[in-house]
Fold this sequence. Notes:
Layout: H1 4-29
Protein name: Phage integrase site specific recombinase
Organism: Clostridium botulinum CFSAN001627
Amino acid sequence: SVSNTEIYFQFTTKQQEKMYMKLEETSEMV
Length: 30
């Protein structure tokens, strides 16, 4: 079975990827 920590880690990694993508978009606009 998958541990809660692993799920949490995967979730946070996806959230970070979304944040980085947004940061890249805003930096390109400037």
